[in-house]
Amino acid sequence: MGEVYLAQDTKLDRKVALKILPAEVASNRSRMERFIREAKAAAALTHPNIAQVFEINEHDGTHFIAMEFIDGGTLREKIHRESTGLNY
C-alpha cells in the first residue's frame, strides 16, 4: 500500500526509502489503521534481510514511513540471479 521513493535524511545525512501513503488512502480510516499496523509490525522486526523502520510520521497532510534504504536491485532481479530452480 503506497509508493516508495528514495529520499535523503538531511539531519542524519543518509539515504532512506520513503513509503508514501496516497491521500485517498489516508482519508479512509480503516486503511490508515492498516498503514500504521504495517509500520509497527515492520518496526518490531530485527533481521539483516529486513529493512529497518526509522519512523512513521505525517508532514503537511502526507503520511509516510521512513525506512532503511538497501542499495541493490529489486527482489525480482535477486530471485532471477540466485534462482534455485524453485517455482515462484
How would you sum up this structure, described in words?
It is a single chain. The chain is an alpha+beta fold and about 90 residues long. It has a single domain, classed as Phosphorylase Kinase, domain 1, CATH 3.30.200.20. It has 3 helices and 4 strands; from the N terminus they run E-E-H-H-E-E-H. A 4-stranded antiparallel sheet has the order 1-2-4-3. It is globular and about 45 Å long. It starts with a strand and ends in a 7-residue tail after the last helix.
How would you describe this structure in keywords?
88 residues, alpha+beta, Phosphorylase Kinase, domain 1, 4-stranded antiparallel beta sheet, globular
Number of structural units classed as domains: 1
Parts with pLDDT < 50 across at least 5 consecutive residues: none
What is the percentage of strand-forming residues?
A: 25-35%
- Rg for CA atoms: 15 Å
Q: Classify the fold: give the CATH topology.
A: Phosphorylase Kinase, domain 1
**Oligomeric description of these chains:** single chain
Q: Can you identify the CATH superfamily?
A: Phosphorylase Kinase, domain 1
Helix residue percentage = 25-40%
The count of β-strands is 4
The overall average pLDDT, rounded, is 87
Strand order of the largest sheet: 1-2-4-3
Order of helices and strands: EEHHEEH
- SS-based structural class? alpha+beta
Assigned CATH class: Alpha Beta
Shape: globular
N-end to C-end Cα span: 22 Å
Number of helices: 3
Q: Main sheet?
A: 4 strands, antiparallel
CATH architectural designation: 2-Layer Sandwich
